[in-house]
Amino acid sequence: MRAIVVGCGRVGSTVAKTLAEEGWDVTAVDESESALARLGERWRGGFVIGHGMDVATLRQAGIENADALVVATDGDNTNIVVAQIAQKMFDVDTVVVRLLDPARADFYAGRGLDVVCPTKTAYETLTERVRAARVRS
């Protein structure tokens, strides 16, 4: 199975390493060559320097043969565009996108994107735990 991870920060690099350890053929994409260091010295997957919204960069990463694409840059707008390019232009089977803005996450999830929103998860979990602590008191 072939996966592309766009955005090689803390989240993206961890996803890339995890998928590679599970046997996926993974290529990471990031604008900064220094992001390759996050993958570690034993990284055997691919790495493409470029912007994820650049179709040529995505092609260089192998999007035409990708089974999955994970988009985890630090910009919601970038993540949305890259995810839509993967879905609509390249018909990638599995596209998962991280969005930090809960309103955008709900909007795009309602339009068919597979969205992960850590902000929403955090405030729901924090609120739930405060309520549970109050009940135990």
Overview of the structural elements:
With 137 residues, the protein is of the alpha/beta class. It has a single domain (2-136), classed as NAD(P)-binding Rossmann-like Domain (Rossmann fold, 3-Layer(aba) Sandwich). It has five helices and six strands. The chain has helices spanning 10-21, 55-61, 76-89, 102-109, 118-136, and strands at residues 2-6, 25-30, 46-49, 68-71, 94-98, 114-116. It has a six-stranded parallel sheet, with helices on both faces. It is globular, with a radius of gyration of 16 Å.
Q: How would the blueprint of this fold be written?
A:
Elements: E1 2-6, H1 10-21, E2 25-30, E3 46-49, H2 55-61, E4 68-71, H3 76-89, E5 94-98, H4 102-109, E6 114-116, H5 118-136
Parallel strand pairs: 1-2, 1-4, 2-3, 4-5, 5-6
Summarize this entry quickly:
The protein is an alpha/beta fold and 137 residues long.
CATH superfamily heading: NAD(P)-binding Rossmann-like Domain
End-to-end C-alpha gap: 50 Å
Helix percentage range: 40-55%
Briefly note the structural class of the backbone. Answer: alpha/beta
Helix and strand sequence: EHEEHEHEHEH
Low-confidence stretches are none
Q: How is the main sheet built?
A: 6 strands, parallel
CATH-defined topology: Rossmann fold
Strand neighbour order, sheet with most strands: 3-2-1-4-5-6
Note the overall shape: globular
Which CATH first-tier class would you pick?
Alpha Beta
Radius of gyration: 16 Å
Question: How many domains, as an integer?
Answer: 1
How many H/I helical runs?
5
Strand content: 15-25%
How many strands? 6
Q: Roughly what is the average pLDDT, rounded to an integer?
A: 95
| CATH 2nd-level architecture | 3-Layer(aba) Sandwich
